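RECORD TYPE: inverse folding
INPUT: C-alpha cells
STRUCTURE:
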C-alpha cells in the first residue's frame, strides 16, 4: 500500500477528475484491464466494471486490456488462457461494455505497445522497481523467486496505459503504485525527449470493497467468490454453504462477524440499501433468512446480465470478432504512438 499521504493526494486528484469528467468527458482517455486468470466475479463487477461502463456511457474514450502477458508474472503456465480470454470478453459484453465505443484487446496481439517497454525501462531504476509494494506482496504470495517479468510488469503496465495515451485509470488501491510508475515514466520520457505522453491519474472507486463470502478479499482461489457467469442455482448453493456464526440475531459487525457482515454487504450493494438496514429487518430471522435474502438480491441484480451472457455464449464467432476488431484498432493506435516515440527519440532513418 502507498503511504497515507500519497493515498490522500491520489484521492483528492481522483475526486477532482470525477467532477471534471461530467463537464469535459472528451478530455479523458480511460485505460484499464484485467488478468485473464479465471471468471470475473462480483468484486470485479462492483469494483471496476460498473465504473468502466459509466465512463463509456459518459462519452469518455474507453479502452480495456485483457492482460494476457500478466498471467505469467507469478505462475508457470498459460493453461486455459484462450478460454479465459474469450470468457472475459463474454463477461464484458454481458455487463454492458459496448464494443462500438470501448476497445477490447490483449497484450499479445499488439507488438508496438509492447515495444514501448524498451525505452520505458531505461527511465526507471532497479531500486524503484524493487520497492513497489504490490510487486513485493505478489512475489511473497507466489512462493516463487522474483522473475524479471514480475519485477518489471508495472513498467509494462505503463506501456498499456500510455500507448493509447490513457490519462485516467480506474483502479483499486492496490494498483496505485503502478499508476505512480506510469505517471513517472510519462513525465521522464517527456522531459528527456519532448512531450509525447499525457499525465496519468488513478480514478478511485467510491463503492466500498465487496468482500468474499467469508469476509476475506474476494478471490477465486479462496472459493469465496460469486462469479458473474454463475447460474442462479450455483449462486444459491455457494451462499448457502458460506460460513456464518452461532449467534442467531443478525447484526452488521465486520470485525467480530465477518461471515454475516460479508453477506449483508453483498446484499446491500445489490439492492442499494445499507447493511445495517437489512440486518435490522432480518434481526431474529437468523442466517437462513439472511442467506435467502442475499441469494435473491444477487440473482435479481444479475438476472439481465446473465441472460445477455447466455445469449453471447451462443455466439462465439461474434465474441471472437469483437476481440479481433479491438486488436486491430489497438495496433493502429500503438503504431502511431510508436512512430511519435521514434521521432521524439530521433530514431527515424
Ligand atoms: N494489473 C491489473 C490487475 O491485476 C491488470 C492490468 C493490466 C491493468 N494492465 C493494466 C490495470 C493497465 C490498469 C491499467 O488487475
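DESIGNED SEQUENCE:
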Amino acid at each position: 500500500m502507498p503511504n497515507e499521504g500519497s493515498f490522500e493526494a491520489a484521492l483528492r486528484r481522483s475526486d477532482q477528475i470525477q467532477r471534471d469528467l461530467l463537464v469535459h468527458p472528451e478530455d479523458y482517455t480511460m485505460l484499464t484491464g484485467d488478468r485473464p486468470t479465471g471468471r470475473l466475479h462480483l468484486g470485479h463487477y462492483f469494483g471496476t466494471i460498473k465504473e468502466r461502463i459509466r465512463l463509456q456511457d459518459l462519452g469518455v474514450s474507453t479502452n480495456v486490456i485483457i492482460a494476457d502477458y500478466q498471467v505469467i508474472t507469478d505462475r508457470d503456465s498459460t493453461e486455459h488462457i484462450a478460454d479465459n480470454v474469450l470468457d472475459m470478453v463474454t463477461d464484458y459484453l454481458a455487463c454492458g461494455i459496448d464494443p462500438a465505443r470501448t476497445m477490447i484487446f490483449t497484450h499479445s496481439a499488439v507488438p508496438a505497445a509492447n515495444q514501448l517497454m524498451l525505452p520505458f525501462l531505461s527511465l526507471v531504476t532497479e531500486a524503484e522497481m524493487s520497492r513497489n509494494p504490490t510487486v513485493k506482496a505478489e512475489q511473497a504470495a507466489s512462493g516463487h523467486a522474483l522473475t524479471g517479468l514480475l519485477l518489471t510488469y508495472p513498467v509494462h503496465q505503463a506501456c498499456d496505459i500510455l500507448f493509447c495515451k490513457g490519462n485516467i485509470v480506474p483502479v483499486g488501491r492496490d494498483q496505485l503504485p503502478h499508476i505512480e510508475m506510469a505517471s513517472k515514466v510519462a513525465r521522464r520520457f517527456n522531459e528527456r525527449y519532448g512531450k509525447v505522453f499525457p499525465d496519468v491519474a488513478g480514478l478511485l472507486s467510491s463503492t466500498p470493497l465487496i468482500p468474499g463470502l467469508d469476509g476475506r478479499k474476494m478471490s477465486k482461489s479462496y472459493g469465496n467468490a460469486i462469479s458473474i457467469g454463475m447460474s442462479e442455482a450455483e449462486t444459491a448453493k455457494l451462499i448457502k454453504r458460506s460460513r456464518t456464526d452461532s449467534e442467531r440475531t443478525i447484526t452488521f459487525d465486520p470485525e467480530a462477524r465477518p461471515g454475516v457482515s460479508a453477506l449483508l454487504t453483498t446484499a446491500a450493494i445489490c439492492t442499494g440499501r445499507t447493511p445495517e438496514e437489512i440486518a435490522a429487518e432480518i434481526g431474529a430471522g437468523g442466517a437462513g433468512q439472511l442467506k435467502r435474502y442475499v441469494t435473491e438480491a444477487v440473482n435479481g441484480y444479475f438476472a439481465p446480465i446473465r441472460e445477455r451472457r447466455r445469449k453471447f455464449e451462443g455466439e462465439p464467432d461474434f465474441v471472437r470478432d469483437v476481440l479481433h476488431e479491438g486488436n486491430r484498432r489497438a495496433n493502429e493506435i500503438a503504431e502511431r504512438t510508436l512512430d511519435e516515440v521514434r521521432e521524439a527519440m530521433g530514431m527515424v532513418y
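NOTES: The chain has 14 helices and five strands.
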